Amino acid sequence: MAYGVGGVMSHLANFSLSGVLGVMFLAYVASFVGYTGWGYLLARHSASKVTPFIMLVPVIALVVGYVALKERLILWHYVGILTVLFGLRVHLLGGRWFDKRG
């Protein structure tokens, strides 16, 4: 949402300690954990096996928001989650999806 120059200046002038701590957490802690985990996986597995799982980031964000912050999910959130999970399943199974031998 665009706040305009006045809205942005108002937000900058009225920031809180919890807001600053939240930004610092995202900038340092969450980024460190994310990049460390990503590097760990890429060091042990090929990029073609690891990269598709990046699609789970918005799914995890929705689930964490629902569980931790009591955010309300609407129908389109569920449709998006199922679409991502289905796409990941198709990618992982590849041609074996239709293999009748099981």
TrEMBL record:
Organism superkingdom: Bacteria
GO cellular component: membrane
Keyword Membrane (UniProt): yes
Main location (coarse class): membrane
Xref: Pfam families: EamA (PF00892)
Membrane-topology annotation of the record: Multi-pass membrane protein
Keyword Transmembrane attributed: yes
Keywords per UniProt: Membrane, Transmembrane, Transmembrane helix
Subcellular compartments: Membrane
Positions of the EamA domain: 13-89
Membrane spanning stretches: 20-43, 50-69, 75-94
PANTHER family per UniProt: AMINO-ACID METABOLITE EFFLUX PUMP-RELATED (PTHR32322:SF9), INNER MEMBRANE TRANSPORTER (PTHR32322)
Protein name from the UniProt record: Probable amino-acid metabolite efflux pump
Gene name for this UniProt entry: eamA_1
